[in-house]
């Protein structure tokens, strides 16, 4: 500060606060007398301090503040209506040319054009695949088409078109949860400890039978084929297993079956629980498990 106010010319300094009547005096150096320094410290400087209101002291006040640039979004040169209009000129001209050949058509909302049946597919293609649409969904395609066009059953036609779009089908991400890890059936360590069973139906009549109960040993792949006249109940299935399988091969540890009514009933579960065998049901609509 001394280098700024220590010149020979008188300097005037303006501030936006009332100048103080007394100034803080720096501490005197060691060995000096404080009384002599207090009276002569500011006398060697030739300057004057005046008051200027803050409203008139704009430039110095701005330099004393931290600059904080604010985000500024430049306005577009053309409004969105002009851009949409330029992209709809071609398709609108085709629709207007087709309407010039007819004398009457159903009423449409104000500001829209009625689209004849032979041009509807082309209009939907424009509303779904143009540079303005970029393969949007059903709602975005409808929103774009409704700005200028209208015809009966427009929602149905747009839904069918979007559902059949091959580009959307290839690019659409899956919304389902990822598939879980495979859990193969445990490998048996001895014969007839783990069984797999199911019914074969829809066979032609042979000796009064149309159904075959198939029981396979998962260890040795040996099988029992039990012919039946019709599908049995849960209790009848339990009797068949005792008379044709268990009495020859012993009680199993686990029985794999599908989710048929015979194997999901409480009778079958209680039967297997009484034998000490676990019931393993396959996944729905996945016959490869059994």
Automatic annotation (TrEMBL):
An annotated GO BP: DNA integration
Domain annotation Integrase catalytic: ranges: 187-290
Any single Pfam family the record assigns to this protein: rve
Domain of life: Eukaryota
UniProt GO MF annotations: nucleic acid binding
Transmembrane regions listed in the UniProt entry: none
InterPro entries (alphabetical): Integrase_cat-core (IPR001584), Integrase_H2C2 (IPR041588), Retrovirus_Pol_polyprotein (IPR050951), RNaseH-like_sf (IPR012337), RNaseH_sf (IPR036397)
Entries under Gene3D superfamilies matching the protein: 1.10.340.70, Ribonuclease H-like superfamily/Ribonuclease H (3.30.420.10)
Protein name: Gypsy retrotransposon integrase-like protein 1
Organismal lineage: Eukaryota, Metazoa, Chordata, Craniata, Vertebrata
């Amino acid at each position: 500060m001394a280098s700024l106010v220590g010149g020979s010319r008188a300097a005037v300094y303006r501030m936006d606060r009332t100048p103080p009547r007394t100034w803080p005096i720096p501490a005197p150096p060691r060995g000096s007398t404080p009384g002599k320094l207090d009276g002569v410290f500011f006398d060697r400087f030739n300057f004057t301090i005046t008051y200027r209101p803050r409203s008139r002291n704009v430039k110095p006040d701005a330099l004393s503040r931290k600059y904080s640039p604010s985000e500024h979004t430049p306005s577009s040169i053309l409004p969105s209506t002009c851009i949409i209009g330029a992209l709809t000129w071609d398709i609108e001209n085709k629709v207007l040319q087709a309407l010039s050949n007819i004398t009457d058509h159903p009423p449409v909302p104000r500001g829209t054009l009625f689209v004849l049946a032979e041009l509807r597919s082309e209009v939907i293609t424009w509303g779904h695949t143009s540079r303005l649409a970029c393969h949007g969904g059903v709602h975005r395609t409808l929103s774009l088409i409704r700005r200028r066009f209208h015809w009966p059953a427009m929602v149905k036609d747009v839904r069918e078109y979007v559902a059949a779009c091959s580009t959307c089908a290839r690019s659409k991400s899956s919304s389902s949860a990822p598939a879980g890890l495979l859990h193969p059936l445990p490998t048996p360590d001895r014969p007839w400890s783990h069984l797999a069973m199911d019914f074969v139906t829809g066979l032609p009549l042979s000796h009064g039978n149309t159904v075959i109960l198939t029981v396979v040993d998962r260890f040795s792949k040996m099988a029992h084929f039990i012919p039946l006249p019709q599908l049995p109940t849960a209790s009848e299935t339990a009797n068949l297993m005792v008379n044709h399988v268990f009495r020859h091969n012993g009680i199993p540890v686990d029985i794999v079956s599908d989710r048929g009514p015979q194997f999901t009933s409480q009778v079958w579960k209680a039967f297997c629980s009484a034998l000490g065998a676990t019931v393993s049901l396959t996944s729905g609509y996945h016959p490869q498990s059994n």
